[in-house]
Write a structure and sequence with these properties.
With 346 residues, the chain is mainly β. It is built from 6 helices and 20 strands. The two termini are 28 Å apart.
């Protein structure tokens, strides 16, 4: 029986996930030009036939200092944006913020987008300062990808803030900011109060994540399989892990049973067991289980908190053929849960 515990030390940063150089062109690289607003803002679209209508309102916005409007007619697929290049200093931290007010938008997160593109003095893509690929494709250049600021809460007048703090790649001298309205027939958005200011680095947050690579063998019941993970969880706790991820469908593996025969409610016996361990070691545990909900069975990953209680669960959306044939139902959501060290998606 092989047992392996891998503990990863991560510094949660603000750099985006990157792709390889030359993989695609962004809207900032190729856009149909448009008219200009005050402050150097201009309008653009991928091509004229899907270009929405633009307008600048000098007294617009909640502060009366002006707003930039994008308005779509009834056609599908329109896409356009206001854009401006801001000068930045490499390796420094900057806080970006903007506000928008929209009407007629069904899915704001899909259709109302602020995008930040890091560029050098020639307007070219810049590399990341840290490699994102270390165990294959050695020598490939990882490039800084587009940043998408987080959408915050709306105020009483319906103005929604998008904002985040970023560290500039060391070779970047400018960031191209784009404020979009896309794919929203009959919709309108007003952008206002756009700012980019140098700021202090955010406080460092170090999180230790542990993964257990282990396949239970020799057990006779789901409870036996659960107990086999106890020493690994204890070792993760000894190495000061904040969260430990266990195996998938761990109560099914090696027992010779069908999926529905080991499925249980969530919360249930297995989450109760791992909840006691989570509370004992003061960490988060993510076991992979089979859930029964009425007549349905799901492949689930469950997030259990340091208080021993179930925080939430993810029902596997993309199932392999064996699980489909075994009567497992797919989930339909991608949940995100708050923890004491940040948000966790399963």
């Amino acid at each position: 029986m092989q047992r392996q515990l891998v503990v990863s030390l991560l510094a949660i940063g603000l750099a985006g996930v990157s792709l390889l150089a030359g993989s695609r062109r962004s809207p900032a690289d190729a856009a149909a030009p448009g008219h200009e607003a005050t402050g150097g803002w201009t309008t653009a679209a991928p091509r004229d036939e899907i270009r929405p209508e633009f307008a600048y309102e000098p007294q617009g916005g909640p502060d009366g200092k002006g707003s930039m409007t994008i308005r779509a007619d009834g056609r599908d697929g329109l896409d356009g944006w206001w854009q401006k290049a801001f000068q930045v200093s490499g390796a420094k931290h900057y806080h970006f913020a903007a506000r928008y007010q929209a009407t007629g938008v069904v899915t704001p997160r899909r259709s109302i987008v602020a995008a930040l593109h890091w560029r050098d003095a020639r307007g070219q893509h810049v590399p990341l300062d840290q490699p994102t690929v270390t165990n294959y494709l050695r020598g490939a250049t990882a490039m800084a990808e587009t940043e998408f600021p987080t959408t915050r809460a709306a105020d009483r007048q319906g103005w929604t803030e998008v904002s985040d703090t970023y560290q500039v790649p060391s070779r970047a001298t400018q960031v191209v900011v784009e404020l979009h309205l896309r794919w929203a027939p009959g919709a309108e958005v007003r952008w206002n109060n756009v700012s980019l200011t140098e700021t202090d680095p955010p406080p460092a947050r170090t999180v230790r994540l542990a993964t257990v690579h282990f396949r239970p063998a020799g057990g006779r019941t789901p409870e036996d399989n659960c107990r086999m993970y106890e020493p690994f969880i204890a070792e993760a706790a000894r190495q000061k892990a904040d969260l430990v991820v266990l195996g998938e469908t761990l109560t099914y593996v090696g027992l010779g049973k069908k999926y529905h025969e080991v499925a249980e409610s969530i919360p249930g016996p297995s989450t109760d067991y791992f909840g006691r361990l989570a509370k004992k070691h003061n960490l988060y545990i993510v076991p992979g289980l089979l859930e029964r909900d009425g007549h349905l069975v799901y492949n689930v990953a469950v997030l259990i908190g340091p208080d021993g209680k179930v925080i939430g669960k993810y029902r596997k959306v993309c199932l392999p053929r064996s699980e489909i044939e075994g009567g497992v139902a797919p989930g339909s959501e991608y949940p995100v849960f708050p923890t004491r060290f940040g948000k966790v998606g399963l």
